Amino acid sequence: MTSVLVTGGAGFIGSHLAEGMVKRRIRTRVLDNFSTGNRDNLAGIDGIEIFEGDVGDMNALHEAMDGIDIVFHLAALPSVSKSVLDPVHSNTVNLDGTVKVLLAAKDAGVQKVVYAGSSSAYGDSEALPKLESMRECPISPYAVNKMAGEKYCSVFSSVYGIETVVLRYFNVFGPRQDPSSHYSGVISSFIQKLLNGQRPVVYGDGEQTRDFVFVGNVVMANIFASVSRVGGGEIFNIAMGERVSINELLEIIRELVGATGIKPIYREARKGDPKHLLADIGKAQKAFGYWPVVGLREGLKITVDWYKQRLK
Q1: Structural domain boundaries of the chain?
Q2: Could you identify which of 112, 208, 213, 250 might form a hypothetical disulfide with 163, taking C-beta atoms 3.0 to 4.6 angstroms apart as the criterion?
Q3: Pick the catalytic residue: 142, 152, 169, 290?
Q4: Which CATH superfamily includes the segment(s) 3-173+212-241+279-293?
């Protein structure tokens, strides 16, 4: 692997992945239309080639993929609630964009596409932990978009011969995450509210559980998967393999921030959100050596410290 493209590379996860590639002295290019990505996320990362463009634009994709070996496709509109309000736009960005990325990668002779899937494909099934062999049961337009993208990855491998691999992210968190994100920004939202002396908002009773994974672990999963022999659109869970309730999570964050006296506000649960999530990560561990080396509490401390510095 000598050159990579990260679509959505100015976003939260994409910028960390791009930075990780640069640190490994790999030629790194980013494609982002900056609708949700932030230029500040790439500030200070020397050597990145930035292409401003949209994954819906085939000309931009062809230009960005010229001379590229590996494509990490992270560009998306990552919001369950927004997909419920506007399913057409969600489909255009998340599914149509994925098909065009795969087609452009085929045209450019890319070696492999690593696709950012989503645990939302599992829906609200009560079976835990989630195994990649389970039947998908999406309960939001966003989940349908992301799941359909996985199917296209498999089809492009079998029909066109381009290697693809799907990494199903669970709840990723870490520095640079947008606190206003409706999909995965609960941790950053909690931290920002507490640092500002405000009451954090919990949707539902707070007893819903999630499998939170630090962004550094996700970066390593992408790197390992990209250089491994896995392909054919095979799917892998990327998570911690542990679950925590939102109430328990908030207690840890309040302690780390030093705001144990601030009580949360409870509001109605949001449509399209599953009650419980927990991943089985054994398949990824066996296939390409993935293991979450940064635990939940350590990752939370790193994230809190970053937001404290940002506030200063």
Answers
A1: 3-173+212-241+279-293, 186-208+243-277+299-311
A2: 112
A3: 142
A4: NAD(P)-binding Rossmann-like Domain (3.40.50.720)
Q: Is 115 assigned a catalytic role?
A: no
- The pTM (predicted TM-score) of the whole model is 0.94
- Whether 20 and 4 have beta carbons less than 8 Å apart is answered as no
**How distant, in Å, are the alpha carbons of 69, 121, 218, 267 from that of 226?**
10, 22, 12, 41
pLDDT in tens, 70-97: 999 999 998 888 898 999 999 999 999 9
Give 222-258 pLDDT, tens digit per residue.
999 999 999 999 999 999 999 999 999 999 999 999 9
CATH superfamily of 186-208+243-277+299-311: UDP-galactose 4-epimerase, domain 1 (3.90.25.10)
